[in-house]
Amino acid sequence: MRSAAQLLRDARRVVVFTGAGMSAESGIPTFRDSLTGLWERYNAEDLATPEAFERDPELVWRWYEWRRAEVEKARPNPGHEAVAAIGGVLITQNVDDLHERAGSKDPVHLHGSLFAPRCSACERPVPVGGGHLCGSCGGRARPGVVWFGEQLPAEALEKAVAAASDCDLLITVGTSGLVYPAAEIPHLAAARGAAVIQVNPQPTPLDEVAEVSLRGPAATVLPALLREATG
Predict the structure, then answer these.
(1) Do residues 108 and 36 touch, judged by C-beta distance below 8 A?
(2) Sequence ranges of the domains in the chain
(3) Is 77 annotated as a binding residue?
(4) List 80, 99, 109, 111, catalytic entry
(5) Helices 2-10/218-230 angle, 10° precision
(6) What digits encode the pLDDT tens for the residues 159-209?
(7) Is 42 annotated as a binding residue?
(8) 119 annotated as ligand-binding
């Protein structure tokens, strides 16, 4: 912890990179968790694809509206609040809005957002709860997330690559390091000479590039890191 705190104190350009583990600590299931309740007979991978949306758009929409409602019931945890206090550039693989509600400004959502539906035809934003048709062109609205088999949003990826290339410290939190191309971000920062701090309860492939690995939940470790660095 002391070594990580010193790295944070010395850093001038910080990037925080978060994954599903951070949201899981607020009670939001990850894609590795089995679906429950009304959705227990489905696999997440079977609902989060362009093919599933083409086959049964109303089913997919119901699932995403359920997911958004679950997120709205959740609350940011102390890890989210610590990330907001650390500042710098925030890159997240999460599609919820917990970082924003904790006070983080303009996070880069690599995998899109449950709160940013868009038209599948003209790509214009569609208001949340505004129906499933685009008000501009009449095309079918779709959830604003990246599905399996789709590319990451070009603008978000460009911002993430630029930030990782320019930072002197990257803190990776709650990510398995297995989901590509997002998992390249910490490797890119390390290759450009940045120090990498990993926060995760379990070992991950990012151990090989992390200068310091802090084992434990983000809601506990990040506030402790912030106290050590600023105390």
Answers:
(1) no
(2) 1-27+75-111+151-231, 29-73+117-145
(3) no
(4) 111
(5) 60
(6) 999 999 999 999 999 998 888 889 999 999 999 999 999 999 999 999 999
(7) no
(8) yes
